[in-house]
Amino acid sequence: MRGMKEIIEAAECLPVEQRIMVIDSLLRTINPPLAEVEIEWMMVAERRLAELRSGQTKAVPGDEVFDRIRGRFGK
To answer: CA–CA separation, 9 vs 36, rounded Å?
Structure first.
């Protein structure tokens, strides 16, 4: 088995999306999600996607969101 340092170095070479998947997988081994919470989040995500597709809700570009946060918290 590879040592922790080797595992971390290998993970650091992955694309961002894959690193996020590794992090999520590891966190789930520490704090497994509750099935009912996962179902609720899925319902929220599906509702929000439907709102976007129908035009009921307008998407806000990520840069604009972060600019608002920086403005609000002074960073």
So the answer is: 35
Reported pTM: 0.50
| Cα gap 71→55, rounded to integer Å | 28
Per the CB < 8 A criterion, the answer to whether 11 and 19 are in contact is yes
In the block, which residue shows the tokens 């081994």? Answer: 29
Residue among 20, 17, 21, 22 at smallest CA distance from 7: 22
The tens digit of pLDDT for each residue in 19-63 reads 999 999 999 899 888 889 989 999 999 999 999 999 999 999 999
DSSP string spanning 3-42? -HHHHHHHHHTS-HHHHHHHHHHHHHHHSPPPHHHHHHHH
**Half-sphere CA count of 56, side-chain side, radius 13 A:** 7
What are the residue boundaries of the structural domains of the chain, listed by start? 1-32, 34-75
